[in-house]
Design brief:
By secondary structure, the chain is α/β, with parallel strands linked by helices. It is 44% helix and 22% strand. The chain has a single domain, classed as Rossmann fold (3-Layer(aba) Sandwich).
Length: 234
């Protein structure tokens, strides 16, 4: 198994940051998005075909996306993988008899065999993987031919509204809320900084096509603040 101890130094800092906020992660997501994050996940999951296969929820956090996939008939079982053990612990507490499993691992060296999954999903984790193209190739490796990948993410903004949103809320409001609700201003300043350093939607699509995916379908949320993209493994 590719363990979290194999992470490079920069990733270990991010791993520790998520561990610190795991207990209040869901609360912060609901407050900062005015609960829109739940709606975005529900709509994004509908980009996947109906099916009862095995699904990987990478950077699963507290399993919000995986749970939406189960409820909406897009998977029979969710295998959650995250580099933060406290996040996994918070997520498995929601299990309630559902078909969920959890493993700690590195997104660039996934602890799964080739062609293990029918579906793979990532919600707001791709920008944390260090190498977007390498992680897309690793996701392609663990997907069966014809399998589907769904990514929900904050991509680097190129239009005026998301740029203005991140310049105001991302730089000021989010860190303040993180400080007040979780006692960790740095974690929510990281959101702004990581978005600014990530790829745009057009760059993301090029990475996915290069990694062995096809037929991208996009869904924009809240004027382009967030996007979902679904692609198929070829």
């Amino acid at each position: 198994m590719a363990g979290v101890n194999a992470l490079p130094a920069g990733s270990k800092d991010v791993q520790a940051m998520f561990g610190r906020i795991a207990g209040r992660y869901d609360l912060l997501n609901r407050v900062l998005s005015a609960r829109l994050d739940l709606r975005w996940r529900r709509i994004a999951v509908n980009l996947l075909p109906e099916g009862r296969g095995e699904a990987l929820d990478l950077a699963c956090g507290t399993f919000d996306l995986g749970l939406a996939a189960l409820r909406q008939g897009r998977a029979a079982r969710i295998h959650g993988c995250d580099f933060s053990v406290p996040m996994l612990a918070a997520g498995t507490a929601k299990r309630r008899g559902l078909a969920l499993s959890a493993a700690a691992g590195d997104a660039l060296r996934l602890p799964y065999a080739d062609a293990a999954f029918d579906v793979a999903m990532v919600a707001y984790g791709w920008r944390n993987f260090g190498d977007p193209l390498a992680s897309a190739r690793e996701l392609r490796r663990v997907l069966r031919p014809g399998g589907h990948l769904l990514i929900l993410e904050f991509f680097r903004p190129v239009r005026w509204f998301p740029k203005a949103f991140y310049a105001t809320f991302g730089r000021g409001v989010f860190p303040l809320a993180g400080s007040l609700l979780a006692g960790d201003r740095t974690a929510y300043r990281y959101l702004h900084d990581s978005v600014q350093g990530f790829v745009s939607t057009s760059e993301a699509e090029r990475h996915l096509l290069t990694a062995g995916f096809a037929a991208p379908r996009w869904q924009a949320f809240s004027g382009g603040v967030s996007h979902a993209v679904a692609v198929q493994a070829v």
